[in-house]
Amino acid sequence: MKRLTAVFETSLEKLGRILARQYNIKVVHRGVSAYTNGRLISLPSTANLSEETMTDLHALLDHEVAHCKYTNFATLQRLLPGSARMLHKNILNAAEDVRIERLMGKEFPGCKVNLDNLNDKFQGKWLESWMDKPWQAQLIFAVSGLMTDTFSDDFDRKKIRIFWDILQKFIQPLNKAKNTSQLLKVTKDLTLEIVQRLKDIAEKAKAEQEKAEQKEKAEQEKQEKAEQEAEENETNEETEVDETENDTEESEDESEDESESESESESESESESESESESEIESESESES
Question: What is the pTM of this model?
Answer without folding.
Answer: 0.71
